[in-house]
Amino acid sequence: MLGEFGDDSTRFVDAKARKNNAGSSPITRASGSRRVVLARHARNRHLADAVHQWAFCSMRGSPGARAYYTALRARGTGHQASLRQLANRWVGILHGCLKAATAYDETKAWAHHQILSLPLDNKERGMSAAMRARVRQPVG
């Protein structure tokens, strides 16, 4: 994977550029009242295949990745879409590690996604993760 990303640290200005190159970030098309989220087809195919395989295999070795995938599936997201979202998250984690020159830390990488594993009630479905966290905080 690192061979496909290249060794130039300035090649990708942010994580979004790296995710676009890997083909893991979605494309959103909106027109009037319609909004469609599609998979990206313009991508580095070798890298996209490697990232997809990485996401699939990571569910066995990473409890955080497995919990993230399971939470996505519980919300009704399909298998392939869940894998794409997991791959997108992994590319973001990789980008952060490369930019900060730090080693991967499981607890740090998945800490803010723990809220996704909790079941949502009807009034929380349209909320962002940050808003759900504020709503769920105990009063007092």
In spatial order, strands of the major sheet run: 1-2
| Total count of domains | 1
Estimate the global geometry from the Cα principal axes.
Answer: globular
Rg, Å, rounded: 16 Å
N-to-C order of helices and strands: HHEEHHHHH
- The stretches of 5 or more residues where confidence is low (pLDDT under 50) are 115-124
Task: Please report which band the strand proportion falls in: under 5%, 5-15%, 15-25%, 25-35%, 35-45% or over 45%.
Answer: 5-15%
Distance between the termini: 48 Å
- Helix segment count? 7
Secondary structure class reads mainly alpha
Tell how many strands the DSSP assignment holds. 2
Report on the biggest sheet.
Answer: 2 strands, antiparallel
| Helix content bin | 40-55%
Mean pLDDT: 77
How is this structure best described in words?
The protein is mainly alpha-helical and about 140 residues long. The chain has one domain (about 1-110). Helices cover about 55% and strands about 5% of the residues. It has a two-stranded antiparallel ribbon. It is globular, with a radius of gyration of 16 Å. Mean pLDDT is about 75; it is low at about 115-125.
